[in-house]
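User: I'm writing a tutorial on reading structure tokens. Could you give me a worked example: one chain, its sequence, then its tokens, then a sentence or two explaining what the tokens reveal?
Assistant: Sure. Here is the example chain.
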Amino acid sequence: MELEPIDPETALELYIAEKEMELSKSTIRSHQSRLGHFVRWCDERDITNLNELTGRKLQEFRLWRRNDGDLCKVSVKTQIDTLRVFVRWLGTIDAVDPDLHVKVISPDVTPDENSRDVKLDAEDAEAILAHLETYEYASRPHVTIALLWHTMMRRGAARALDVDDYYPEEQCLELHHRPDSDTPIKNGIDGERFIGLSGWLCQLLDDWLRDRRPDVTDDYGREPLLATQYGRPSRTTIPKYAYRWSRPCAYGAECPHGRSPEDCEAVEQGHASKCPSSISPHAIRRGSITHHLKKDIPETAVSGRANVSQRVLEQHYDRRTQREKMEQRRQYLDQL
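And here are its predicted structure tokens:
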């Protein structure tokens, strides 16, 4: 076949223009950001015509991104997966060989690496919640994921909440450690605290309680806030919501792994965790903490709200790059 010349910038513009018809704005921004690095790499290598792309050049780009000290292995994998989708699209417009995308090799990530580094990005959280608000408003998954994202609480804390722990007038929740009735929380008594809520989240909880929550009690006669038709949710229920709704295809985004719903095992009932993009509730918490820190909310405030020491916050949850931290500190230079 005869390829038609096209430069990287024009190709990206055409790709984004086409995807704007089917993807959310937040997903479009993510694709632009990830592929922007590829365009920059092409500029540095004087690649002005994507017809020149080969498997070797794509491997060189992968190594270039891997050597960026600010990127963890999971982030590199995400960017390379998005590049594969882009290269496959390039093949449909005669810009590259139609089979070139199979030569985009994504790095393998072990479960340990994934659980330690992966987090829910703010734009993906917005896309998930926007989809749920439109199509699953005030459903149990919608309420659960909104709670996890906006409060930074652990899944055990969300499961432990009772209806009486919600104070709509004061716009807050009160977390209790109740091990004798099957709802202990991390850090025990030291994990008990009040958590302020936004007006939007309170409205969501009000609508859930009024219209959607099953009128049930648990085995101890308590009324769980995130009730199922059987009572309090099991310990696996909240992870299932996280895995299911963090799959890009679940909230209307294109699969970054080049899969189709017809042959993807993660689409099958109970197999959502097999999607490379699906995440656990802890990744939602990690992403929310990082998002709050990027918004210049003081570390002490984030530490108290999330119930985590500042040392642990820095070591295990803060996923800001060193450059991002520097730019946030820059605003204080004039005060020195």
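What the tokens reveal: The CA atoms of residues 30 and 123 lie 7 Å apart. The longest strand covers residues 172-175.
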